[in-house]
Write a structure and sequence with these properties.
- The complex is a heterodimer of chains A (472) and B (334).
- Chain A is mainly alpha-helical.
- Chain A is built from 24 helices and eight strands.
- Chain A has a domain at 392-470.
- Chain A has a two-stranded antiparallel sheet. Chain A has a two-stranded antiparallel sheet with strand order 3-4. A two-stranded antiparallel ribbon of chain A has the order 5-6.
- Chain B is 7% helix and 41% strand.
- A four-stranded antiparallel sheet of chain B has the order 1-28-27-26, with no helix packed on it. Chain B has a four-stranded antiparallel sheet with strand order 2-3-4-5, with no helix packed on it. Chain B has a four-stranded antiparallel sheet with strand order 8-9-10-11, with no helix packed on it.
- Classes of the chains: A mainly alpha (472), B mainly beta (334).
- The A-B interface holds A 53-54, 56-61, 63-65, 67, 69-70, 73, 195-204, 206, 209, 337-341 and B 21-23, 28, 31, 33, 48-53, 83-84, 101-102, 131, 178, 180, 195-196, 225, 227, 243, 264, 266-267, 269-270, 273-274, 277, 279-280, 283-284, 286-291, 294-295, 299-300, 302, 317-321.
């Protein structure tokens, strides 16, 4: 049987490598063993997938869905329900780096297809992922490569590929590439374009297809990052994949997303990583494995720097994590049912318009998720759900609390609720406030189950409103 | 000179025309789930639409010659409203019976859209339903409802009195796994699209199992989540092979006859929409040259009905249209 430390560590893993879990799931996984669960997360094919046929049966419009709202709903439903939690978390990870947005693409279906690509290949080979990205019609359009021609170059994709998708501007106070490299990169990708697609009316858009036009490709000699030849996009991706800067870029992103909030990306050239040893360990895994993202993730999740107590509840939940994590905890929308649209819009109200990042740079993370408006939205959302004792997950928590004894003192009551909703560690001030509130009604007795349930729901609501609940 | 003839060659199917386009209101359909065709060739299409476009939830009435008649029913939980409308059938008085998978009820409406009544409640007891899907009504007025999450078919009177049931969860003969569509042949036998078992099952009118056709796959006589089933006057069976994007035709004994994958040619309503937008006309022309099959083929066909003139109507969920075929017994030059 797993002890309290095992449960706390497993809860940490499932918050970071997934979107959290119910207490029942956490305890079952803790009993399974930490390394075994990590291996399962890293190998999603070993666990069942979401039941896609059921999803499309009850939400039949999800097939080739044109509307962006429908694609977001389907994605949020997957985040809540997929047993392959890390796979879905990686889709979010890449969406926050390889940013393309519906505001320009104007095709919900293409946004959905891009996320599906991240889902399928997000733990695969990074060089291959870059190729998929470079041939993704949505990205080709979003960053204007469809407007980049042999005779009329558009540098947008070439620049962002280097700056935001692979090398980063610089590391260790040096620059990773020059303006000439940007031009050479853009020239190498000329001719990478999109085939004509059916318009929205009268029968719906066809999926966009990548098309290479050799007549529009600049096949002349180029020099890119010191290598010279008649380079094309594939050659450029090969060169990018073997750069130490690429390994650094990936390692810092993974650390920032899964371990601890780091400085924002534009500062990475001048600001060293928060934990250089952790970064170096992941860089080594990148090269040792031949650019496999899964190898880097295995190092990360099995490391002491990930398991350390001081990184737990030290990352601000992004809005998707806040919404989906709370819904998983309270057992909301675990079945396929109406009402998902409103929930799927909640991340937007909290500052994260899924499938529509503000710019190609994506969202600023960490404490920048929080402002006076989004904080109110976050608290209201979580408190409403956590206090709803009709929900199966909340009922389960209440049942567990009842099993702790016929009568709980206010201190036991607070401790029990904090344990069941995390286990969540709070500051002394917060703890005192919760205890003061619990003391107003004295001991909590199971003799009056309705009153027990009401007070428990109220305490869960108060916990959802604490500063600590904003972190994961 | 000698030659060889293979397969069941006594009938074939000729594409006639298409009806409809994707539309949230008026002359088109939005994510339709089922349809009923009356003796005059008027078709009543159930539009499921999707959650953030509840305005698309409705019943559309039009002719198979693509004359728009009316639309009725709206999203909601009040009388005459729908949340997840699923199946539709006509009784002998030509009243429309429409199932709702979320509200677990049957709504009765006139062909003019007047609300006439409702019955049904959620649950798993006798007469209760958990996501009712397909519906068929026999000539004697027995209503057969596919009670999908209870893995059974239930029988009711026209005013909702429980008469009986058959089927249970499983994959054995006569067992069902989330069944969907249903139809009756002229002898009163019941054909059920056993959705998650990827097969069609046949019962007599008393619910006794008669036959099962099909298995999982994309080959001949195999299905990938069949959802619609219809039987014509000759006993030929039409199956909307949903995730295989085709309709398979089986002989009365279950042997494979042929398949349809879609032959769409632009409907009039489709032309009307396109003609208002020259840019889309140009774009579509380029797209057609790149891939002529996209618009032509079925995309998640979800229901098949055969009308009194032997016209086989295939409801195409994703494309929002009906493709109409004629059953032809004379040789047809294709």
């Amino acid at each position: 049987m797993a002890d309290q430390q095992d449960v706390a560590l497993m809860a940490h893993l499932l918050r970071r490598a997934g979107f959290g879990a119910s207490r029942d799931e956490i305890e079952a996984k803790a009993a399974q063993g930490y390394d075994s669960v990590v291996d399962e997360l890293l190998n999603p094919d070993t666990v069942p997938n979401v039941e896609e046929d059921l999803l499309m049966r009850y939400m039949p419009a999800y097939h080739e869905a044109a509307a962006i709202e429908t694609n977001i709903q389907a994605w949020v439903w997957r985040m809540i329900n997929t047993p392959r939690q890390l796979q879905e978390k990686m889709a979010l990870f890449w969406h926050m780096i390889f940013c393309a947005g519906h505001s320009k693409i104007d095709s919900g279906q293409e946004m959905g297809r891009m996320i599906a690509m991240f889902r399928e290949h997000g733990m695969g080979n990074f060089r291959h992922l870059l190729w998929l990205l470079s041939t993704s019609p949505a990205m080709v359009y979003y960053l204007d490569n469809s407007e980049s021609h042999k005779t009329n170059l558009n540098e947008n994709y070439g620049r962002e590929l280097l700056e935001l998708f692979s090398l980063g501007v610089g590391k260790d106070e040096e620059f990773n590439y020059s303006e000439d490299d940007v031009k050479a990169c853009a020239r190498a990708f000329t001719g990478w374009n999109i085939a004509p697609s059916y318009p929205p009316f009268p029968y719906g858009r066809s999926p966009w297809e990548f098309r290479f036009d050799p007549a529009d490709h600049d096949d002349s000699e180029k020099t890119f990052l010191g290598e010279t030849g008649n380079l094309n996009g594939d050659d450029v991706l090969d060169i990018i994949a073997r750069q130490p800067a690429t390994a650094r870029f990936l390692a810092r992103h993974l650390y920032n997303f899964f371990v601890a909030d780091d400085v924002q990306i534009p500062a990475w050239r001048l600001t060293p990583p928060r934990d250089m040893k952790a970064i170096e360990a992941m860089e080594k895994a990148y090269f040792d494995s031949g650019y496999e993202i899964k190898a880097m993730l295995e190092v990360l999740f099995k490391s002491d720097f990930f398991k350390a107590e001081d990184v737990r509840y030290a990352k601000v939940k992004n809005p998707a994590e806040m919404v989906v994590g709370t819904m998983r905890l309270v057992g909301e929308h675990r079945d396929i049912q109406p009402g998902l649209f409103e929930f799927s819009q909640e991340p937007k109200y909290m500052g994260m318009d899924l499938m529509n990042p503000p710019t190609v740079e994506g969202w600023h993370t960490g404490r920048e998720w929080i402002d006076s408006g989004t904080l109110v939205e976050r608290i209201n959302f979580a408190a409403d759900l956590m206090g709803n004792t009709e929900l199966p997950g909340v009922q389960s928590l209440v049942g567990r609390l009842m099993a702790q004894g016929d009568t709980l003192t206010p201190d036991q009551f607070v401790a029990g609720c904090l344990d069941l909703t995390g286990p969540l560690t709070v500051t002394d001030d917060t703890l005192q406030q919760l205890r003061t509130h619990a003391s107003k009604d004295g001991d909590l007795s199971t003799a009056n189950q309705a009153e027990f349930s009401r007070r428990a729901g109220e305490m869960f609501q108060m916990i959802a409103a604490t500063a600590e609940f904003q972190f994961e | 000179m000698s030659t060889h003839f293979f397969g069941l060659t006594s009938r074939t199917y000729e594409y006639s025309h298409s009806v409809g386009r994707n539309e949230f209101a008026g002359t088109g359909f939005r994510n339709p789930s089922d349809m009923a065709v009356d003796a005059e060739g008027t078709v009543y299409v159930v539009n499921r639409s999707y959650e953030n476009r509840p305005d698309g939830v409705r019943i559309t009435a039009c002719t198979l010659d693509e004359e728009y008649i009316s639309e009725f029913g709206t999203y909601g939980e009040e009388d005459g409203n729908f949340i997840w409308p699923a199946g539709i059938a006509l009784d002998s008085q030509e009243r429309l019976f429409i199932t709702d998978e979320w509200l677990n009820r049957v709504t009765i409406m006139s062909k003019d859209g007047e609300f006439l009544g409702k019955w049904g409640s959620g649950g798993s007891g006798d007469g209760e339903m958990d996501r009712p899907a397909g519906i068929a009504i026999s000539e004697d007025g027995t209503v057969f409802i596919v009670d999908s999450r209870n893995s059974r078919v239930q029988k009711f009177t026209l005013d909702g009195q429980y008469l009986g049931q058959f089927g249970s969860f499983g994959s054995g003969p006569g067992q069902l796994n989330m069944p969907w569509g249903i139809d009756l042949d002229k002898e009163g036998n019941v054909y059920v699209a056993d959705w998650r078992n990827d097969r069609i099952q046949v019962f007599n009118s008393d619910g006794e199992w008669q036959a099962s056709y099909g298995q999982s796959g994309d080959g001949v006589g195999q299905f990938n989540r069949p959802n619609g089933v219809a039987v014509d006057e000759d006993g030929d069976i039409y199956v909307a092979d949903w995730l295989n994007d085709r309709v398979q035709v089986l002989a009365p004994d279950g042997r494979f006859v042929t398949q349809m994958v879609g032959d769409h040619v632009m409907s009039q309503w489709g032309k009307d929409k396109l003609l208002s937008n020259p840019d889309m006309i140009r774009q579509r022309a380029l797209a057609f040259a790149n891939d002529p099959t996209y618009e032509r083929n079925f995309a998640h066909p979800c229901a098949v009905r055969v009308d009194s003139q032997d016209r086989v109507c295939v409801l195409d969920h994703t494309r929002g249209r009906i493709q109409v075929y004629s059953k032809v017994k004379d040789p047809v030059l294709v």
